[in-house]
User: Which sequence fits this backbone?
DNA sequence: CTGCTTTCGCTACGAGTCGTAGCGTAACTG
DNA sequence: CAGTTACGCTACGACTCGTAGCGAAAGCAG
């Protein structure tokens, strides 16, 4: 939840979750959008703030990102930021989440090709300075703040599991993978594959600091799909 | 390099890089050790500072770790900290690096058993609050600071690649893996396996926030060793 | 148009941290 | 002993944080 401490939370570009969560003290009931009574929040300000956040992230990194800086850059008062986001962490989650929406499952006709394509997309995303500056810092904050970790998962991580689901479904439709029998086992399998792909690519790029080449992608995909390299006979 | 801006760097518990591992302040050893002339640095202070760092990390997390706090806890002046470590980042690298030394390659008689054992050890290490608070935060800082990333790699990440090398060598001795032919290909294979294991376990524990169970470890190891789950025939 | 409500920009503030400087004292060497 | 270096302590300017208070602006209901 980006903000929602002031009297009445108004849904804006940054407050899509307002509907999902009550949060409005004066609001009558669950149902429809809370009818705004006073001056509505500027949607343009939301966009300007999120843009300014991404730009500052790219230029100065996580450490150089201050609320005052973002406010100045977005041509907005610092108090306006705090009216919408309780802290830097929540602001950056919203600013970065949209970047991950560009990932798509291409369905190229084979499981191997699909995996390699998604890995390449993810690698490109992780090569961007905004993403680099924000992602690990958010994850780090999330290890202490459970609420934040939940928000990160909901806004950034979990939505990408659809890629694994779609890829698996496509491979099953092609006959490359056996159809699911136990749904809970399928869920665990999706989790483990997701953690493996996301974790490995992140570690390669952000920790080891090595680039993701087509050759590396090919090797990694082989490790996933096939047996261990040079296993047993050879 | 932990410190070394003052006139002469004296090797202490926190300054092993001064020359391989002299460690003993009064021991001239073989090489070129700089002969200390004035009052030697207190090795006890180093230990107290590193202990205080780990304790504060465990209690207050990365955000709650301030130089003043550590100094107070270690019963040391704040200036003493800055005389040895230029910033929080370098201090934490040294404080955390030793925790990773406890990881060992057991050689249990099969590649699968060895992998599972190492994964379990790594999972235990990541479950500790000091490690959780520090690791991702350091990685995040490392994405902006190349020097720091290098230090993290040298002190924390790379030393653990020995586990992969030892495990591979043991498996080759057993005949489970084919012997190396191209040494550079072997190096890349070690890198990719390391990134995969470390990245996946980190993502599972620190991002997804799910525990590492024996069942999960078994599944993950199967994913590495065998073909994709429910691949092709079944 | 007129009030009502809420947001907006602005300024100011106390609290906390950072990293450094200066000083007198302690410890060790030759 | 003198020389050298580390130590503890205090103080400091610069910065960021998050909040409070104010008058003005922007929609909405009558």
Assistant:
């Amino acid at each position: 939840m980006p903000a929602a401490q002031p009297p009445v939370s108004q849904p804006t570009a940054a407050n899509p979750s307002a509907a999902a969560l009550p949060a409005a003290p004066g609001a009558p009931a669950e149902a429809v959008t809370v009818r705004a009574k006073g001056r509505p929040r500027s949607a343009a300000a939301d966009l300007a703030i999120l843009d300014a956040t991404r730009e500052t992230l790219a230029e100065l990194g996580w450490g150089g990102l201050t609320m005052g800086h973002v406010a100045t850059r977005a041509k907005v008062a610092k108090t306006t930021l705090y009216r919408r986001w309780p802290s830097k962490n929540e602001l950056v989650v919203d600013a970065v989440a949209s970047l991950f929406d560009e990932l798509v499952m291409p369905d190229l006709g084979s499981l191997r090709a699909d995996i390699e394509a998604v890995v390449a997309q993810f690698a490109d995303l992780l090569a961007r300075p905004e993403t680099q500056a924000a992602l690990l810092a958010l994850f780090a904050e999330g290890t202490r703040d459970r609420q934040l970790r939940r928000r990160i998962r909901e806004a950034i991580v979990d939505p990408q599991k659809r890629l694994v689901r779609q890829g698996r479904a496509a491979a099953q439709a092609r006959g490359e993978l056996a159809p699911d029998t136990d749904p809970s086992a399928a869920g665990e399998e999706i989790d483990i594959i997701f953690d493996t792909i996301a974790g490995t690519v992140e570690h390669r790029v952000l920790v080891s600091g090595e680039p993701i080449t087509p050759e590396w992608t090919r090797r990694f995909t082989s490790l996933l799909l096939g047996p261990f390299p040079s296993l047993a006979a050879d």
Summary: The two ends of chain B are 55 Å apart (CA to CA). Chain B is about 60% helix and 0% strand. Residues 6-8, 10, 36-42, 45, 76-80, 83 of chain B lie near DNA strand D (CB under 10 Å from a C1'). Chain B touches chain A through 55 residues (CB under 8 Å).
